[in-house]
């Protein structure tokens, strides 16, 4: 696998980062649809595939 293929793969993810210490608490691909719930400062990502039972 070439370096360019690896670079494209690494760029296609989003991270949810905890502000207090910069720790990545969750990562998800940029492709597809995602639901992000936020309640009292807590974030819960849910992919539509998992939420709707899609494969």
Mean of residue pLDDT? 70
H-E string:
HEEEEH
For the record, give the distance between the C-alpha atoms at the N and C termini, rounded to a whole number: 27 Å
Side by side, the strands of the main sheet go 1-2
The assigned structural class equals alpha+beta
Count of strand segments:
4
What's the number of helices? 2
Helix content: 25-40%
Shape: flat
Rg result: 14 Å
Largest sheet: 2 strands, antiparallel
Strand % is 35-45%
Q: What does this protein look like?
A:
By secondary structure, this protein is α+β, with helices and mostly antiparallel strands. The protein has one domain. 25% of the residues lie in helices and 42% in strands. The chain has a two-stranded antiparallel ribbon with strand order 1-2. Strand 3 and strand 4 form a beta hairpin.
Topology:
Layout: H1 3-11, E1 13-17, E2 24-29, E3 34-39, E4 42-47, H2 48-52
Antiparallel strand pairs: 1-2, 3-4
């Amino acid at each position: 696998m070439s370096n360019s293929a690896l670079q494209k793969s690494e760029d296609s993810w989003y991270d949810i980062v905890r502000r207090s210490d910069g720790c990545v608490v969750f990562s998800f691909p940029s492709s597809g649809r995602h639901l992000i719930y936020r309640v009292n400062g807590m974030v819960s990502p849910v992919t539509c595939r998992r939420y709707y039972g899609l494969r």
